[in-house]
Amino acid sequence: MEPFTFTPLLANAFKFAIDKATTEGKICIGMLILVSLFSWTVIINKALQLYKASKMSKKFFAAYRSTREPMEIFNKGSEYTGAPAYEIYFTGAEELAYHLKNNPVEVRRGAVTTISNNKVPGAETDHIARAVTVKVSNASFESVKVALERAVSTQAISLEKGMIILTTAVAGGPFIGLLGTVWGVMETFSGIAIKQAASLAAMAPGVAGALIATVVGLFVAIPAMFAYNYMVTMIRAITQELDNFVTEFATAIEHTFVDNRPVSEEIADALKKMRDEPQADPLAARG
């Protein structure tokens, strides 16, 4: 009994066609192999990137939405490397922290409370309890929104980086293979015409060698097409999620840190602050 030997599917036909391929056909096949290597490199790296982005984004969103304080994650120094939403959050929080430190707006909230004196009947004293909150102006908030929009664009470019190689493989692979096939068929028929031997045995090897270029082109394009369609769908979903998060984060910042008082109240507060501040003695300044 002869031992069983495993032969890969179409291995004999593939080997025969490669051996009979013309030099031009082999050049096209070599180009397709290079395109395939680049394509698979992008597919593997992009799959890992999208998997990590999806996984870390879930962790970041869970942490962010577990608190009502927009700056809590930033103040704690927590990191979610690989999450596009975290990179956007960190950029916006860093810009906001800069304006809170360098361009603060002090908002004074006053409330009148009445304190009774039990020792003296009828004697009541009004005290103004003031709370000073540090916020940012609307102009500073616009800078924060610009930083958030810039971060979204940066993350979108990062997610889409390398996808042009997959589109090139999808669109160009079959055409490169077709070029090799047409060139090989042309060489085959030219040789038959020169030898004047139009037989099936004379044409079959050359045609098989020519067709292998198209087969390789399809092997390059088909995986790239499926990978591209799947990854583009994921990238669009992540990008939409980032746009929604930017709106959510900007709204939280506006409610918590932006001075949205009426102009009249701001002017009155500024005038009162000027009155409360001690005036410098001009005679002391001269001395």
User: How is the biggest beta sheet arranged?
Assistant: 2 strands, antiparallel
Strand order of the largest sheet: 1-2
Beta-strand fraction estimate: 5-15%
Catalogue the unreliable spans: 111-130, 282-287
Rg of Cα set: 36 Å
Q: Please, how many domains?
A: 1
By DSSP (H or I, 4+ residues per run), the number of helices equals 9
Silhouette: rod-shaped
Number of β-strand runs: 2
H/E element string? HHHHEEHHHHH
* Helix proportion: over 70%
By helix and strand content, what is the structural category?
A: mainly alpha
- What's the N-to-C terminus distance? 119 Å
Could you explain the architecture of this structure?
The chain has 287 residues and is mainly α. It has one domain (11-100, 137-260). The protein is 73% helix and 8% strand. It has nine helices and two strands, in the order ααααββααααα. Strands 1-2 form a two-stranded antiparallel ribbon. The longest helix has 58 residues, at 200-257. The model is unreliable at 111-130 and 282-287 (pLDDT under 50).
Quickly describe the structure.
By secondary structure, this protein is mostly helical. It contains nine helices and two strands, in the order ααααββααααα. The protein has a two-stranded antiparallel sheet.
